[in-house]
Amino acid sequence: HFTLSFLFIAYLFFWTFTLQGQSSEGESFWFSFMEHRDIGVNNKVVMITSETNTSGVIEIPFYNWSVNFTVQPNQATLVQVPSFTENLGSAQISDKGIHLVSNDPVSVYIHQYYSARSEATLVLPEPALGSEYYVMSYEGVSINGKSYRSEFLVVATADETTIEITPTTDPLGVGASGAPFTVFLNKGETYQLQAETSFGDLTGTHIKGDNDFAVFAGNSWTEVACGVR
Questions:
Q1: pLDDT tens readout for residues 129-167
Q2: Residue 221 to residues 59, 117, 121, 207: CA-CA distances in angstroms?
Q3: What does the alpha-carbon distance between residue 154 and residue 161 come to, in Å, rounded to a whole number?
Q4: pLDDT tens digits for 210-224?
Q5: Cα(115)–Cα(129) distance, rounded to whole angstroms?
Q6: Cα–Cα distance between 143 and 38 in angstroms, integer?
Q7: How far apart are CA 221 and CA 214, in angstroms?
Q8: DSSP H helical segments within the chain, as ranges?
């Protein structure tokens, strides 16, 4: 056996949304970090690339935290962000949204890792976001009495955003499978939801809102295939 944190992270778009002509480059990005296997010791890194010389800022608005960055053409700039940006638990509204703004188009990736466990994703810019999503995840795992669950994370990009969530498995801390419920978020707020059990899978969960927002989905830790971590 080998140790690997396997994480599906994806932006999943409303079925009528066309990907043709869509760009991953932009000047404004919203994101955050989901709960990971190694809480409190994970490294959290933002990776920024560009075709031109440019600069910008990464900020965590509710924590009054910010850092400036510069990027050289076709090079990657790495910025480490604080550990408190990791969202913990289920059915929780938090203030852990991270906003990146650049003076020119850039591409953004985020990476969370510790020991042999690693997860990463491309972050899409605000113009590429939507207001309706279907989650792609995977069932979790239970190891030594500890449950690692299927999960997803919503990051609001506008104030007074109403989001309706219809989970495909019983969620932890709220509602039931197939029963829609509503969450109200302001810009920069986040909402993480986890499956109630370690073998639950939130794949297919329907999320829609009255403003555009970002969604990340995956697991805090899992086995793909069964017995291989």
A1: 999 999 999 888 888 888 889 999 999 999 999 999 999
A2: 27, 9, 15, 22
A3: 11
A4: 999 999 998 877 767
A5: 32
A6: 14
A7: 21
A8: none
